[in-house]
Amino acid sequence: MNRRLLSGFLFCAVSLFAGCFREGEPLLFFCGSAVRVPMDEIIARYEKDTGRRISVTYGGSGTLLSQMEMARRGDLYLAGSPDYIIKGEKKKLLVPGTERKVAYLVPAIIVPRGNPAGIRAIEDLARPGVRVGMGNPETVCLGLYGTEILDRAGLLEKVLGGTVVVFAKSCEDTAMLAVLRKVDAILGWDVFASWNPAEVEWIRLDPRRIPRISYVAMALPVFAHDARVSREFMDYVAGQEGKRILSAWGYCADENAARAHAPAAKIGGEYALPANYRAILGAAR
C-alpha cells in the first residue's frame, strides 16, 4: 500500500477508535487570542446550536503550539497568522492540507484614546521617550508582523532595541497595554480598536509600510480524537454564522476588504526573525 495512503488510513482509524471512547467530551481547542472576543461568542452559539461542548485555551499562537506538542492532545488549533500553521505542519503537529482561512488581520498602530504621545506614523515609534508595546516575536504572531514592519522600515534597532518597553505574551495582552495606558503605542491589529473603542484609537499605517496582511487560520491537529466533528466546527467558524460574528466585531471576512488597507501587501506566507534579532535585544539591556 502507498505509504501516504497507509498513513491517512491509520490516522482516520485511530481518530475513529478514540472518538468512540470519548463521546460527549468537549473538543479541546487551542485558539490564538487574536480572535478571543468574537470567538467567545462563536463558541457559545455553536454549543447552543449543536449541543456539543468546546474547551478553549487562549494564548499566543506559538505558545499554544508548544503546549499542544507537550500535551500530545488537541482537537482544534487556530493561529493568528499562517506562520504558525506552517510551523505546525513542519513539526508534524497539524494535518497538512486542512488549513481553513477564517478572517484577515491588518497591522496597525493602536494608541490610548486621545493619543497623548501624538503618534501619527511608524517613524514616531522611534522617538526618544516614546514607550512601545509589542507581542513577543518568538511566540506571538502579532510580534512577528510588528518586527517585520520595523525591519522593512529600517527601524528595527531604534524601536526593538530602544523604545519597546514590553513584550506581551499574547495578542490580548498586547491590546491591554494600550487600554491600561502602560505604553504610548502598540504595534497591533486593526481590530483591537473594535475590542475597546472607548479606550483606544486606531492609527492607520501608510499602506506602503505594510509588507504583509495576516489571515487567521484553523487547522486539524494530528491528535484530534474525532476528525469529523473537528472539521464540522472549523466549517462553522469559517461559515456564514462565524463570518457574521467576526464581521460584527470589525474583522475583514474577505480578502478584498483586507486589501483595501494595503493593496500591495503580501497575504500570508512566513517571516523569519532576522539573524541579529538577539544581538539587538542584548544591546538594549
Helix content: 40-55%
Q: What coarse outline follows from CA principal-axis ratios?
A: globular
- The oligomerization state is single chain
**Percentage beta strand:** 15-25%
Rg measurement, Å: 19 Å
- How far apart the termini lie comes to 57 Å
What structural category arises from helix and sheet content?
A: alpha/beta
**Care to count the β-strands?**
11
| Count of helical stretches | 12
Major beta-sheet overview: 6 strands, mixed
Characterise this structure.
It is a single chain. The longest helix has 19 residues, at about 5-20. The chain is globular and about 60 Å long. Strands 1, 2, 3, 4, 10 and 11 form a six-stranded mixed sheet that branches. A five-stranded mixed sheet has the order 7-6-8-5-9. By secondary structure, it is α/β, with parallel strands linked by helices. It has twelve helices and eleven strands. Helix 2 links the parallel strand 1 (about 25-30) and strand 2. The termini are far apart. Helix 2 (about 35-50) runs antiparallel to helix 10 and helix 6 packs across helix 12 (about 275-285). Mean pLDDT is about 90; it is low at about 1-20. It has helices at about 5-20, 35-50, 60-70, 80-90, 140-155, 155-165, 170-180, 190-195, 225-240, 240-250, 255-260, 275-285; strands spanning about 25-30, 55-60, 75-80, 100-105, 105-110, 130-135, 165-170, 185-190, 200-205, 210-220, 265. Helices cover about 45% and strands about 20% of the residues.
Distinctive features:
285 residues, alpha/beta, 6-stranded mixed sheet, 5-stranded mixed sheet, 12 helices, 20% strand, disordered N terminus
